[in-house]
From TrEMBL:
EC number: 2.7.8.5
NCBIfam families per the UniProt record, alphabetical: pgsA
Protein name per the record: CDP-diacylglycerol--glycerol-3-phosphate 3-phosphatidyltransferase
Pathway: Lipid metabolism; Phospholipid metabolism; phosphatidylglycerol biosynthesis; phosphatidylglycerol from CDP-diacylglycerol: step 1/2
Main localization of the protein described in the UniProt heading: membrane
Lineage start: Bacteria, Pseudomonadati, Pseudomonadota, Alphaproteobacteria, Kordiimonadales
Top-level EC class: transferase
Transmembrane segments: 72-99, 111-135, 155-175
Reactions accelerated catalytically: a CDP-1,2-diacyl-sn-glycerol + sn-glycerol 3-phosphate = a 1,2-diacyl-sn-glycero-3-phospho-(1'-sn-glycero-3'-phosphate) + CMP + H(+)
One annotated GO molecular function: CDP-diacylglycerol-glycerol-3-phosphate 3-phosphatidyltransferase activity
Membrane topology reported for the UniProt record: Multi-pass membrane protein
């Protein structure tokens, strides 16, 4: 159970309080802490699966926890960037689209697991996740990156919309695949 991939997965859950707390710190320090924490967590998202497959240590707990850790981290960051006002106005729609898709796919996967049906992750869904991680990483750095002359907020908003579009497409894709098993 306590394999390196599982520890990396669990670390994404354990850093959520640090991410949330960073939004209550003085800025731009809090933004730097949020960015560093989120970036490390996003890197573990890549390495936990890679290491599990490479070492043949894919486990049931890892398969169970990995998507939960991802969704908890993404949800926490989305809530906090909206709370902080770094995503506001019409841009909140993109955040809501991403949150709704995450819930839809989670529910669909749970239903299909009960029917003993597996829905594989598509390459486009992996790209969606990558764009989403870059978007959220840029957004949590909204207050810190300008110190370095970087337009993180603008990049984050653009990537958030790109992720929302990919989210809609892949969510519909998953729903279509799942509906075949619901009727």
């Amino acid at each position: 159970m306590w394999t390196l991939p599982n520890i990396l997965t669990m670390s994404r859950i354990f850093v959520i309080p640090v991410l949330v707390a960073s939004f209550f710190m003085d800025q731009p320090l809090g933004s730097h802490v949020a960015f560093a924490t989120f970036a490390l967590a996003a890197i573990t998202d890549f390495f936990d699966g890679y290491l599990a497959r490479a070492t043949g240590s894919v486990s049931k707990i890892g398969v169970f926890l990995d998507p939960i850790a991802d969704k908890l981290m993404v949800a926490a960051v989305i809530v906090m960037v909206v709370f902080a006002g770094w995503v506001d106005g019409l841009h909140v729609i993109a955040a809501v689209i991403i949150m709704c898709r995450e819930l839809l796919v989670s529910g669909l996967r749970e239903f299909l697991a009960g029917a003993q049906v597996s829905v594989p992750v598509t390459m486009l869904a992996k790209w969606k996740t990558t764009v989403q991680m870059f978007a959220l990483g840029a957004l949590v750095w909204s207050e810190g990156a300008p110190e370095f002359g970087l337009p993180a907020h603008e990049i984050g908003i653009g990537l958030l919309w790109m992720a929302a579009i990919l989210t809609l497409y892949t969510g519909i894709d998953y729903l279509r695949a799942g509906l075949k098993h619901m009727v």
